[in-house]
Amino acid sequence: MLTISFPESILAYRDTTVIDCLIPALLPSDSGSGSMRLWSLFLLPLLCLPARVRSEDYADATVIVRGSETIASTSDEFVCATIDWWPPEKCNYDQCPWERASVLNLDLTNPLLAKAIQAFSPLRIRVGGSLQDQVLYGTPNLGLPCDPFTKVSSGLFGFSQGCITLERWDDINDMFLKTGAVVTFGLNALRGRQQTRKGVWGGPWNSSNAREFIEYTVLKNYPIDSWEFGNELSGSGVGASVSAEQYGKDLVELQTIISELYGDSNKPLVVAPGGFYDQKWFAQLLDVSGPNVLNAMTHHIYNLGAGNDPQVPNRILNPQYLSRTSDTFRSLQLTIQRHGPWSAPWVGESGGAYNSGSRLVSNTFLNSFWYLDQLGQSAKYDTKVYCRQTLIGGNYGLLDTETFVPNPDYYSALLWHQLMGTGVLSVDISGSSYLRAYVHCAKQKGGVTLLLLNLHRTMGFMVSVRNDLNVNLAEGQGIRRDSAFVHGLKRTVSWVGSKASDGFSKREEYHLSSKDGNPFARTMLLNGAPLELTEDGGIPSLYPVEVSVNSPIYVAPLTIAFVVFPDFEAEACGR
Fold first, then answer.
1. Which residue segments constitute the domains of the chain, with CATH numbers given?
2. Of 182, 317, 362, 465, which cross-links 396 as Cys (Cβ 3.0–4.6 Å)?
3. What is the average pLDDT value for the chain, to the nearest integer?
4. What burial letters (b/e) apply to 62-90, b meaning 16+ CB within 10 Å?
5. Annotation marks residue 232 as catalytic
């Protein structure tokens, strides 16, 4: 890991200035064949000038971390991304952004695709989407031609049924095996049903084609982590719906099939319904299916509105609007506790703006405020998996649909995965609601990781981080505004516990900002340096700057910061 220590003379000036940005130049030098590459870092002061911080430019904020116990936990594969079924003919708002990003036509040999997945080591991938319940599997007894989707005006979502051949399934699994992906596959849950009235489907599920497909998968020893049943058929549904009573009975049948084909060893999870949350419908599904049938309840979130809605950017930066989804997370958590404590909440699909995302927002730096806030909010309510729509495809892909080059949200997802552990801690924050804070146990090390999101367009925040063990002691310092910045250093001490008292403790900071200060930029900066592919086309390493734990955390307007405190005394994180 590359770390840099900055003396306080660089971080703070007596004339009330702070360094606005740092531009690292990484100059490689080989120390011999087979040896580690050494890196030298130089600050380029001519390219990075100090910016004056006036009293009206920043506000104080205090974050108190309560580390005695965790309030929730995620899974190791919390960060997840989807691969959808939409063909190139899928269009919204006079644009067709899917191109060749479907399960059926995605270029599985593209080296960037493999590198992007491998960087997570591992990344959970959910295969599914709107056309999932029209997918046939090209097994020997299908009895129909195995043809791709075609546009049909009378079809569900304007498309015919489509089929995946076993050869294509082999190729997909070869890619999954090579990249170490953890796979959730969505099954067709409409097969065999009849439409009883507009938007409502009845009758039992015909499991024969799915059973043969799963049997082939078991025979080939493809390591599917979980089988998901259906897509957006819950409640009133999207295009189609099925009653919770019938759905629950069909889940029992699916669980029986999986038990028969897998036995007791390495049996995949059964997850459902992959739809929008409807409390009554979800509760009834758990009641009907009964204990230990449904291992996880998947729900979908598109809380920013339509992809062509001009209010999408404003909603992303509105803290009250963002917080509304907490009601959904909280309600689902309670529904599971009361009706099916053997299950767990998952976000099975979430793209922010629906109908392929916003072409002006979803692939830009601005979207990371929504995305990271969603990860933080959902984790607080025991969500085990959060699947981003999409890995590639539409406007909301983590990867660009044409070039496979990572969009800003890809790096946000990767940093979360690398830094945020599974233990979720409670946090109290004083100050503006435009500063959002989430804290987890640090990943694969001691201490904690703090995520800070500054939604304010013009106001920066000088953040004091305190351990609730020491908060009474810290209160004696008081928070008051003073014209001398050096006094600000004293009042923004990061209180992390007795381990920091030796004065040598450091923290690791990852500051994310947009290129040229444009929130709609497609390029993200990490500590002032653009995140771009390496010379050999690889995913770049994400290095922090190392800072004295007793210096202030300044979060500039419209920026994001991950801050790792390796020496933070959090009893819950040492268990």
1. 74-422 (3.20.20.80)
2. 362
3. 87
4. bbbbbbeebebbbbebbbbbbbbbbbeeb
5. yes
